[in-house]
Amino acid sequence: MNLTEMITLIRTDLKDEVTPYQWSDDELTRHIERALKQLSERVPLSALATLATTADSREIDISSLADRIMVQAVEYPVDEFPKRYQRFSIWADILTIISGNVPDGSNAHIYYGKLHTLDATSSTIPAKHEDLVVTGACGYAAVEWAIYAINRVNVGGGITPREFLSWGRERLTYFEAELKKLGRRNRVRVRSIYKPYYPPVSKPTDYGP
């Protein structure tokens, strides 16, 4: 499915199929992007990058990983069997390898998740999640329009925007519930690869048990 096809589906659900349209293509694209970002945060697009380490340093600059949402695993050294995954921590754009030998300047494999894309010719959205993105975009579009219109003169009567607001919120409630389910499933999948290391957050005061 490409962007044009998704906009058509959204117009169908919104009953906005006759010109002049209630929503412009740009407006619907913005709502799609918002829903797509929400999906990406729960089920990011899997990616692999090969980055050089620095000799005698455990730090790796990962600022080149465009649209990065999270890092799943770090393999170092590479091309060994079984693969050697290292514990790591991240601060801003610096990934620090916690376990194993200090890197010698050779490559490391960074397994990470990034934003999905959708444009006029292609999409990285899994087919089974396309309808969910449509639902989310519809919900965002409906709620935005209803909030704008609810206190304005409306030839359809005062109830029309309120009904649309309720309709939009119902879809967003469903959208968010499904995203939570996907997020739980994804955490299980990530942990099956490797559980990263996160140092405990220090507290200024310890009151004891």
* Biggest sheet: strand arrangement: 1-7-3-4
Order of helices and strands: HHEEEEEEEHH
Helix percentage: 40-55%
Tell me the fraction of residues in β-strands, as a range: 15-25%
Main sheet makeup = 4 strands, antiparallel
Calculate the mean pLDDT score and round it.
Answer: 87
Structural class: alpha+beta
The tally of strands reads: 7
Overall 3D geometry? elongated
Count of all domains? 2
Number of helices: 4
Low-confidence region ranges = 155-159, 197-209
Whole-angstrom Rg = 23 Å
Q: Could you give the distance between the termini?
A: 55 Å
SSE inventory with pairings:
Blueprint: H1 3-14, H2 25-42, E1 45-52, E2 59-61, E3 68-75, E4 85-86, E5 88-91, E6 94-97, E7 107-114, H3 130-149, H4 159-193
Helix pairs in contact: 1-2, 1-3, 2-3, 2-4, 3-4
Description:
This protein is of the alpha+beta class and 209 residues long. The chain folds into two domains: 3-42 and 117-193; 45-111, no CATH class. It has four helices and seven strands; from the N terminus they run H-H-E-E-E-E-E-E-E-H-H. It has helices at residues 3-14, 25-42, 130-149, 159-193, and strands at 45-52, 59-61, 68-75, 85-86, 88-91, 94-97, 107-114. The strands form two sheets. It has a four-stranded antiparallel sheet with strand order 1-7-3-4, with helices on one face. Strands 2-6-5 form a three-stranded antiparallel sheet, with no helix packed on it. A hairpin with a 2-residue loop joins strand 5 (88-91) and strand 6. Helix 1 (3-14) packs across helix 2 and helix 3 runs antiparallel to helix 4. The longest helix has 35 residues, at 159-193. It is elongated and about 65 Å long. The model is unreliable at 155-159 and 197-209 (pLDDT under 50).
